[in-house]
Cyclic nucleotide-gated cation channel beta-1 (Chaetura pelagica), 714 residues
Amino acid sequence: ERIGSATSQSSTSINTRLQELVKLFRERTEKVKEKLTDPDTTSDEESPTASPAKQAPVAAPGGPPEGERQVQEEHYCEMLCCSFKHRPWLDRLKNYQFPSSIDPLTNLMYVLWLFFVVMAWNWNCWLIPVRWAFPYQTPTNIYFWLLMDYICDLIYLLDILVFQTRLQFVRGGDVISDKKAMKENYLRSQRFKMDLLCLLPLDFFYFKVGVNPLLRFPRCLKYMAFFEFNSRLEAILSKAYVYRVIRTTAYLLYSLHVNSCLYYWASAYEGLGSTTWVYDGEGNSYIRCYYWAVKTLITIGGLPDPKTLFEIIFQLLNYFTGVFAFSVMIGQMRDVVGAATAGQTYYRSCMDSTIKYMNFYKIPKTVQNRVKTWYEYTWHSQGMLDESELLVQLPDKMRLDIAIEVNYNIVSKVALFQGCDRQMIFDMLKRLKSVVYLPNDYVCKKGEIGREMYIIQAGQVQVLGGPDGTTVLVTLKPGSVFGEISLLAAGGGNRRTANVIAHGFANLFILDKKDLNEILVHYPESQKLLRKKAKKMLKTTNKPKVEKAAPGDVLIIPPKPDTPKLFQAALAATGRMGGRRTLAQLRWRLKELNAMQVAQVSLRQGSLRSEVTWVNVKRWSSIFHMVLGECHCPTGVCFHRITELFCSSPIPPQSPVHRRSPVSSQKAPVPLGGELFSKSSDSLVTIRVIPTAGEKEEILAAEISEVEEAKEEK
């Protein structure tokens, strides 16, 4: 059993060690992959650490072993049989160090602190008028009011001593973070003067005049913190217009709040219930006075008429102030709502103009419905019609940063751009355009010239093929790329080889060939690399097989008929007799004509039908006469025909654009029943052309003597 237990322990330790080695190898492999993918990453590799299983605990002199010390550090207390681990947030709180300088534009902690400062400022602005006008501050609750007042004063003091003296600032284009410079900048600012003014110690007059809330009125002068908080909060909110609407509504409510406090003070000055105009003292005083303030500022009417001179003057001032304040609030609310819906208003105006245009030109309803669908989907998916309009005002560097965050992960996966200059890819990212395709829209069609590369951002596209062009060959998903070879292909290789349609709504990034060429001018090494990759990709791509010409296809030069077997036999026989020079020239011309025929078959698409009549049987007979060195043609045109057909370079006929009527071959008139024949110099081979009853039918005969046949058998 001891031997078995020892063996199991050793195998366990070996397995543990192997797992650790595998983990280390994986980490090094990932680092090498990152280095190959991103050359800018550092190549410093961390040295492998020792395995925790192999690290022996080292005991400190006079202290517990290291293993026991780690166990003790993992627990902060032991209660009976339970052990509790350290709470992470407590450790972070204990080890937290207050920053020596604060960036007021990006530091969220500073925005949170401004929130507390604004809450203290709102406490003073809202409750000082209430405590002054209404009888809500009594000797029984005076300590509660004083406690809240001094808590707000403490927040004001901490803001001056701790935060404002640590705010970074810009001087001469440089961000200053020196402690002394930041403190001096705050002490010389206008904000420091207002902060000192709002903390005037007027509370000492409490000992002489009592606790009068009006002595705390300077606390309302810390309005700069309120406006700074508004700007910082709007910068971090995704829907800032919601906060603007809430803030404008708060302005209106605060104006009504102050008016209700003034109305209660005027009623108390005249005497509660003394006239029909003043507050009668019944019900909740604040609610009743607030209701009166709302009716006055909104000028609803139905208010009692003032009786005394004081009441008349107060009501007139209240009316004037209410109309002015209410009109300002309504105008500001209109601006806030208009700014919030500016994009939607632009979308509606564009859509209405497009519909009006289509109705004017009587565009079919199917096309109009697709246009409407495109507008609606583009607006709901992107929140805008053109993304590039938002980035026009930004500097080029910021546009590049945004493009990298949005598109770099997709473009870096394109095999065509692997190994290219990173700056070239960055310049290319700024040229990408976002386009939305509707379901069943053709992204590209087979045979058209390819001028763009497509990157799928959202949605799917299908590649169609097959005999009828409706078979789905493959479905491409987000992150896929197609059409990249068309950016660099030349010489007719940039034609689309398949139809690609959108399967559902698809959002694609498009890179134009013209934009890429403008970029590659500045990166010649990347241009050479892309050319090589494009050639390799074109070679590995399965090209469509060359098909035979269909009956309806048009050729520039139609294929000539095959050489008659009898003529081939005559050439073979004549080649053994002499006349090698002329026969070699004839064979070379025949091979050249065959090569022209093969080349013309591959040019069946887009060609024009030739109207040239090829060599007929009579021309073959003339050729024989010339080859054999003896011509008995009564017309005497054999030599000219041979010169035209074989001794001149094979020039294609003129295009039928210039001459559409067919040109008939000029035949030599041969009398019916007449016979053409030709013999060799040694009279061993005789070629005869025998006409028949039909005008276009002739018989070609070749006669070889018995002596020649005997030589061939030998």
The first helix runs from residue 2 to 37. Residues 40-86, 542-558, 577-581, 603-672 have pLDDT under 50 and may be disordered. The radius of gyration is 49 Å.
